[in-house]
Design a protein that fits this description.
about 30% helix
Length: about 100
Amino acid sequence: MAYLVTANKKTSIDFAPDSVVSEVLQNVQTILTTIKGEIPLDRSFGINGSVVDMPMPRAKAVWSNEIFNQVKKYEPRAKIKRITFDVEIAGKLIPTVEVSISEIG
């Protein structure tokens, strides 16, 4: 089964998700909505924010690579099937990731 996770807004964290699926989707959304350097004890967690002034095709390529690497590193139960981007009028990129989930252990 495939699930969509978007980075359109940060949501509150559920410290006791009711299922593995909910936990994994929440973790992927946290990765997508965190800019590298924001987490004091793990400055490498999150997505690189330096794409702000890049041309749109390059920014999408850089972010796609970042998303793949970060999800693989921090949430290996999520397997990325596809990454798409919505572009707001102001030029803001909003990634949406389609993932499948495999339980470990």
